[in-house]
Structures are given as C-alpha cells and as structure tokens.
Design goal:
The complex is a heterodimer of chains A (380) and B (95).
Chain A (H helix, E strand, L loop, with lengths): L9 H14 L4 E7 H9 L2 H4 L4 E8 L1 H4 L2 H11 L4 E5 L13 H6 L3 E4 L3 H10 L4 E8 L4 H14 L4 E8 L1 H10 L7 E5 H7 L4 H8 L3 E4 L3 H17 L4 E3 L11 H10 E8 L3 E10 L8 H5 L14 H5 L31 H9 L21
Parallel strand pairs in A: 1-2, 1-7, 3-4, 3-5, 5-6, 7-8, 8-9
Antiparallel strand pairs in A: 6-11, 10-11
Helix pairs in contact in A: 1-12, 2-16, 8-13
Chain B lengths: L4 E11 L2 E8 L2 E6 L11 E5 L2 E5 L2 H13 L2 H6 L2 H6 L8
Antiparallel strand pairs in B: 1-2, 1-4, 2-3, 4-5
Classes of the chains: A alpha/beta (380), B alpha+beta (95).
Chain lengths: 380, 95
Amino acid sequence: MKYIDEFQDPALARRLLDEIHATVTRPWALMEVCGGQTHTIIRHGIDQLLPDQVELIHGPGCPVCVTPLEVIDKALEIASRPGVIFCSFGDMLRVPGTGRDLFRVRSEGGDVRVVYSPLDALTIARQNPDREVVFFGIGFETTAPPNAMTVHQAKKLGIRNFSLLVSHVRVPPAIEAIMLSPSCRVQGFLAAGHVCSVMGVAEYPELAARHRVPIVVTGFEPLDILEGVRRTVRQLERGEHTVENAYARAVRPEGNPAALAMLADVFEVTDRAWRGIGVIPGSGWRLADRYREFDAEHRFQVTGITTQEPAECRSGEVLQGLLKPNECAAFGTVCTPRTPLGATMVSSEGACAAYYLYRRLDLQAAPAAPTTPLEASPVG
Amino acid sequence: MCLAVPGRVLDIAERDGTRMATVDFGGVQKEVCLEYLPDLRVGEYAIVHVGFALQRLDEESAKQTLELFAELGMLQEEFGDPWELAAGPDEGAGE
C-alpha cells in the first residue's frame, strides 16, 4: 500500500462513475472546498466524466488566493526593510500586491527566501541572530499547526529575532458564508480532507443540519473525489443532509488531538478578510496575547497601507463559485501564470491556474452571466 | 502550498529536543517533525504537510475503501441484469 497509485485505478474509477450515473435522476450542484481537489478534478477531467446533471463548483479553499491584499502589502513592506530576512512558501512570491510582488522586492535587494517548512525559517533565525527573520504564516487548518509549533518552539528556545506574519483562515465559517450568500447554488459539499485530518469532523454536523446540506469529507486522489461525489449525490437523491467521512484512511472523527491542543494554545479566533470576498466573521486565527511578541504586525508596526486591486480581475467571483475561470475576459490573454492579475492564477491550487494548465487549449473564453457577489461585512 | 502528501517513515531521532523523522516520498526524502504524531513508527505512512506529520494513514481502512469500490456493481454483474433475467432464463447464457 503506497496510498497514491491504488486510489488512481481506472477500473475502480469506472465502477464509481457507473454507480454515480445510475444514482443521479436530477441536476445537482456540489462544491469541492479545497483547491487541491479542484486540481485533481480538472487534471483528470473528472468533471467531464460525471453525468451532465452533476455540476462541480470550485470553492475558495486556496490559502494563497484568499490572503488579503492588505496582508500581501504588509509582507512587501516588511520584506523591503534592511536587516530583515523574509521567509515564505514559494507560491506567495508571485502573488501580486499593490503594484509589485515579493519577487520584485527580492530583485530590488530584499532578502526574500523560499522555505519548505516554517521550521526552516526558525533555523535561519538561529543562524542569523543579528537579523530579524519573519515567516509568512498563511494557510488553512492544515498549515496552522506547523506554524503554531514553530512559534511555540521559538518561545521555548528563546529565539527572539523570529516573528510570524499571520493570515490563517478556517473552513467552516467560509461554508457558512457561502450558504448565506443570496446567489448560492451549492447543494452539497466535498469537505477538505486534510483540514479534517487535523480538526476532525465535529464542526460540521451542526452546519449540515442547519443548512440542510450534505457534507462529505473527501480526499485528493481521483477515486477519493469520485467517492465524495457518489456519497453526496446519494444523500441528495434520498433527501438526506448528514456528515459522512469518505476519507477514513486519513481522517479520524476526533482529528489530531496534539495539533488541536497546540492551536488552542498559540492562536485565537478572529474575524478575517478574504481576498475577493470580504470579511467573514470568526473565519481566521491570530496569535494569542501570550505570543504577541512573535507577531510581525506588532513588531514592525506596518501602517498607512493603501491597497488597490486591478479592476479587470474577477478572482473574487471565481473564489465564490459564481464564475468559472474561462468565463473571465482576461483569462489566458492579459492574465496568465507569468503575468497574473490575481492570486487564483498564481497558486498551484488556484482554479484559474488549474484551468490554464489543463484546459486552456480546449476552452474559449465564454462571456459570463452577471452575478451577485457575496454580502461582505464592512472591514473593522 | 496546502498540499499534503503520504510519506513512509524511514528512521526516527530526537534533534534539539524535537522528535524528527526521515520520510520517503516515492524516492524524495525529507526531514519531518513528528511532534503531532509522537507514536508514529518506522515503516508506517503518514500525511505530511510543510515538514510536519499530521495524521497516520490507516492501512485497514484504505483496504476496506478499495474493497468497497471493487464491489460496486458486483451484484449486478454476478446475477445479471434483472430485466434481462425476467425476460427469459436462457437469454444471455453460453457466454
């Protein structure tokens, strides 16, 4: 068992597809929450193999894409300062801020470094005691525990030249916001499997019951996606709306207790702005007061930032599932992975990047119907 | 960035008071922190994300899932299409 090839088997995929085709009697719209799932779906053409009645709407689960412009601009400002070593995961470097990105800061002399793990940034801090080392702490519930552990270690080891620029986001409040949107068409969710590997499934039954929507915890290989779709469609056809775990090999109902304890120690829940969407109440984490000295925003006092999104970028509608990437007039023309207008074209999990990588030769830009964006709360 | 992938533990050691492992991802090896899965053992697989093992992969439930997929549609294959059977017991025989 290697846990990858086995879950890509074409013969088993055929069985799952036959079962889905035999089950569907009516049109259904499902949302896959995670950008990693979007990539599997587009790469393997799963959306084209499903019955015409089953539509997959791509969700906002790409952390690079939803990191707000204001935070990107703060990162650019901090990374430009002398004496700072700014560490980040690679796919944040090309995300456009207002007028520039981290690559530009590096070309202008900023010390911007790509790391594989936040612990690598901590090592850099130990090796450079006379420099300020900042790690760009973005991501969902999957990435938050590694970043929490790194801050915890910094405190334990007394590494004072390390800090975290935090922009963590949480999935359940985003599902809530999507369901409350007036233009919501989603009838069932494929929940993000690795988020649940950490968090377990306790947050979902109440959401499923209140919005009368099936939520099926789903993995990332082609067979996982098909099984998530099969179970969601089966529930919808039966008029059910419960939480199911279709990714049992990696998700225990209780999640990972050690990671949950660390999250509770290091972070506290806060309102968070999502790029292209707006503020979603309770949808983020910030450092708890006892870790405040490790908060880069506090340490560097970055203020006076004015943000400006490019007017032609419609990534907010893509992130809300209101627009398919190829329905945007800029897709593949002015907006490409080399010259991205928005983060959805940059990130390896962005829906626009997935369509560009696997579909652009099959697709022609299609004019989009007008949409009503999600009601965002005012910032503050 | 958020991608997490299965890897197999090759060896485990304490480094600077932290439980670390060398993990193999189909030929590529990385150093991985085991603080969130302290009882993970050599030879086991885990979901690894940005240098941290986040959840053990359970072989038994993986097998059960694959068996379930293999059984989908089996009853129909074994006993044939009920409509065809109803039409006449000899139809479809001799294949």
